[in-house]
Amino acid sequence: MQKLAELYRGKAKTVYTTEDPNYLVLEFRNDTSAMDGQRIQAFDRKGMINNKFNHFIMNRLEAAGIPTQMERLLSDNEALVKRLEMIPIECVIRNRTAGSLVKRLGITENQVLNHPLFELFLKNDQLHDPIVSEAYCKAFGWASEAHLAQMKKLSYQVNDVLSKLFDDAGLILVDFKLEFGLFENKITLGDEFSPDGCRLWDKKTLEKMDKDRFRGNLGGVIEAYEQVAKRIGVPLAPFSDNVSANKKI
Ligand code: UDP
Q1: Residue 132 alpha carbon to ligand 1 centre in Å
Q2: CATH pick for 3-84+229-246 out of 1.20.1250.20, 3.10.129.10, 3.30.200.20, 3.30.420.10
Q3: Residue ranges of the SAICAR synthetase/ADE2 N-terminal domain (predicted)?
Q4: 29, 48 in Cβ contact below 8 A?
Q5: What is the atom index within ligand 1 of the atom nearest the CA of 174?
């Protein structure tokens, strides 16, 4: 499927229309952003790693019965996806304390939560993605009660599938962000799942293996992404149209 026109250029991905109005091309660039896009740096190979990482994870989620927008890989840096009508809300699941939760409550990092938390944030860089509630979503019409219930259920299912997948690879899934949209009126997982949008710590050393390496200037950003990809079995060989990596599970 050919790219037609640029639809939207985000902080790390560019989205293109195709000849089919129901499908888009996601291009994963090497750019990495922090502080709501105020700090951006390009890392060689990052677009390729995140594209293949995302494809691998989305296929695993589909296989577990979670509807995703993923269709197939198109190249090292591009994937074909369903065009969703996006809901302007970020869904965050947390298994341990980290990041904005630690700052907001003035607590220490790495406390195991009694039950995973489900949080909602409004997508708005200028306002730094403020935390909102289900009542806010309903009051302002960002998402209906039925859609929110579905998003919450699917987010917890994603947590079950991926916590196990990363645990088997010696990694702790600390927290992650998901974005959903509607495809033919059905809540469907969109955007991406990669080390840019989750926290992954080594089980033994608690070493950070995700975008916190960039946020905290820890170095070894791409090395960590690549190691995580290898540990969970993401095929990173150069793209070929017939390789098994591209077949749906
Ligand atoms: N996250 C994201 N995009 C955002 C905000 C958060 O992908 O705009 C991810 C982040 O990488 C982490 C989780 O969501 O895995 C929870 O992030 P948090 O609320 O702690 O915010 P942060 O301190 O990371 O900005």
Answers
A1: 14
A2: 3.30.200.20
A3: 7-231
A4: no
A5: 15
Q: Average per-residue pLDDT in the chain?
A: 96
Rounded to whole angstroms, the Cα distance separating 205 from 197 reads: 21
Residue 242: what pLDDT?
63
Q: Say if residues 157 and 165 touch (Cβ distance below 8 Å).
A: no
CA angle 73, 193, 9 (to 5 degrees): 70
The whole-number average pLDDT for the span 51-56 is: 98
Of the chain, the percentage scoring pLDDT greater than 90 comes to 93
105-160 tens-digit pLDDT:
999 999 999 999 999 999 999 999 999 999 999 999 999 999 999 999 999 999 99
191 lines ligand 1 (CB under 6 A): no
Closest CA to 50 of 214, 205, 164: 214
Domain-wise residue ranges, the chain: 3-84+229-246
Q: What is the dihedral of CA 115, 143, 71, 67, to 10 degrees?
A: 50
| Angle ∠(232,237,240) on CA atoms, nearest 5 | 125
* Separation between Cα atoms, residue 13 and residue 51, nearest integer Å: 10
Residue 163's pLDDT is what?
A: 98
